[in-house]
Specification:
about 525 residues, alpha/beta, Rossmann fold, 2 domains, 9-stranded mixed sheet, 6-stranded mixed sheet, 22 strands, about 35% helix, about 20% strand, elongated, binds S-adenosylmethionine
């Protein structure tokens, strides 16, 4: 009897009867069995007696994977198992699956003491911990040796009862998944270990800065496994996922042990994932008083990170700024036009920006490409100057995350221009970017080297202004020199040009210059 697969199939049958919207309310996406087994393996050595929690048990898969391990490894352990599930139907399934697992395990000399609770984990956990602050209950509080979870993911409103009740205990959380992680860190026994499968967003997103610093202070991240293809493990979850393994650590020490980084496309090839031991200092990166988790998953990645970390340049350092296009089409609808006219100026969309250049107007584009110039639109328009335009979103299948185009004022006759909200535009404050600077920055952003750096440091298909500001840049002379070559030879191979110039300036090692694949 394969309880793990049975529990997955039972869970899938239940979820198949629900609409996508209903599943989304509780973040219901099941872990495939191969991934569940991999996660159970990450718990490391299982002792003869331990406690384990799954705070969002679904139909019971992750705990079944742990029990399967105990049976396969002939460990005759005594195990205290706690599980929570908010959905009564999934709860019934988990309870009956784990009851059967208990009977099977007992036949093999294992003693499982299983408690499945049909409750909201966050509310139950915060009320236990908070009561314990005032009563003798703290002696009876459960500290777990292991926590294994695929928690729900969705944005949490500040007036959600879970946000309110947990704030005093673990601070403010904008997504329910980091709230589950924070509560887990809080209830792990000393040296207890936890494995979570969650979106990658917490590694770099601005909203998660506080959580990252708490995680770095209280836990040792032992391993990070990255799924490169979005949505293949959990249909409809269109973001990269990671499996993060962390253990409880004394607040007064900092992480020194290397972090094991691995990657696979999806759950199917996870068993072949090759582990890479990376110094914690390379993964945990401090920038502007914020901390980030970076994921160097390929051969050259450590070299790329070390190179970029050595550069002191940045947009602000060169008196440049990045802003988001001011024209939100549906709000400015009354002023948009499909055809040119005397009182209209160009309106540029993401589609006008393509591999280094700005192509405007586009015959094939079925969008209004002009916007009226009037007192009403004054705040939406910017003067025609030199800019670097960057798409704010890249499509999933697009080869590059950063897509930049050079907007040169000489190519436009009007005095002002509109940039639609899906574009970022870079300019120089109180002055203007030179043509060479525009061309040079555009080449850098479009290069394979910068694309790779961006992927190591960020799992998002969105390119935010904050991320562009924190992107290290080489010295301005190098940017200008790259730009000058692009101007004299528009067909130059940008990837190679960027590598050659950075190498000549001693800004990257020679190994990167000859690397076949970045
Ligand atoms: C992403 S699914 C994972 C289910 C299962 N652990 C697995 O790995 O397949 C998250 C589960 O948490 C449940 N859930 C959502 N919010 C919860 C809460 N506040 N407390 C307990 N369970 C919750 C959902 O109903 C869902 O079954």
């Amino acid at each position: 009897m394969d309880l793990l697969v049975e529990s997955f199939e039972a869970g899938q049958r239940i979820l198949a009867t629900r609409s996508a919207a209903a599943r989304k309310i509780h973040g219901q996406y099941l872990t495939p069995p191969t991934v569940a087994r991999y996660m159970a393996d990450q718990l490391g050595t299982l002792p003869k007696k331990f406690s384990i929690l799954d705070p969002a048990v679904g139909s019971g898969m992750l705990l079944c994977a742990v029990i399967e391990r105990l049976i396969n490894e002939n460990i005759t352990a005594e195990v205290q198992i706690d599980a929570y599930e908010i959905d009564p139907i999934l709860y019934e399934t988990a309870a009956s699956t784990l009851e059967r697992a208990q009977i099977e395990a007992e036949k093999r000399g294992l003693r499982l003491n299983v408690h499945v609770h049909c409750h909201d984990y966050v509310l139950a956990e915060t009320s236990h911990r908070q009561q314990s602050l005032f009563t003798v209950m703290s002696e009876h509080l459960q500290w777990y040796d292991f926590i294994i979870a695929n928690p729900p993911y969705f944005k949490l409103n500040s007036d959600d009862p879970r946000s309110k009740t947990s704030r005093a205990l673990v601070g403010t959380h904008t997504n329910i998944y980091t709230l589950f992680m924070a509560l887990a860190i809080n209830s792990l026994a000393p040296s207890g270990k936890s494995v979570f499968i969650v979106p990658r967003s917490f590694c770099s997103g601005a909203y998660f800065a506080h959580f990252r610093s708490e995680l770095a202070q209280q836990a040792t991240v032992e391993r990070l496994h990255l799924f490169e293809s979005r949505g293949q493990n959990f249909e409809e979850v269109l973001q990269e996922n990671v499996i993060v393994t962390f253990s409880q650590r004394d607040r007064h020490t900092s992480q020194t042990t290397p972090i094991v980084i691995s990657t696979s496309q999806n759950g199917g090839d996870i068993e072949n994932a090759e582990p890479r031991h990376v110094p914690a200092s390379l993964v945990l990166h401090q920038h502007d008083r914020s901390m980030f988790y970076r994921l160097p998953t390929e051969d050259n990645d450590a070299m790329i990170l070390r190179s970029f970390d050595g550069w002191n340049g940045s947009l602000h350092g060169y008196n440049m700024e990045v802003s988001t296009g001011r024209v939100v089409a549906f709000r400015a609808e009354a002023y948009l036009a499909l055809f040119a006219s005397e009182d209209a100026v160009p309106l540029l969309w993401m589609q006008h920006v393509k591999s280094g250049i700005v192509r405007y107007p586009l015959v094939e584009l079925r969008k209004p490409q002009w916007i009226q110039q009037s007192p009403d639109t004054e705040t939406l328009l910017v003067p025609v100057l030199n800019y670097v335009l960057l798409r704010r979103f890249s499509a999933k299948e697009e080869p590059r995350r950063l897509v930049a185009g050079a907007f040169l004022s000489d190519d436009f006759l009007s005095s002002t221009v509109g940039f639609e909200n899906h574009l970022n535009y870079i300019y120089r404050k109180q002055d203007e970017l030179s043509d060479a600077e525009v061309k040079g920055l555009t080449a850098l952003y479009n290069s394979a080297l910068f694309d790779r750096y961006f992927r190591i440091t960020n799992g998002n298909t969105q390119v935010n202004a904050a991320e562009l500001r924190s992107l290290p840049l080489p010295p301005l002379e190098i940017i200008q020199s790259i730009g000058a070559v692009c101007m004299s030879n528009p067909l130059v191979d940008v990837d190679q040009l960027v590598l050659d110039q950075l190498f000549e300036a001693n800004l990257i090692p020679s190994d990167l210059l000859i690397a076949e694949k970045i």
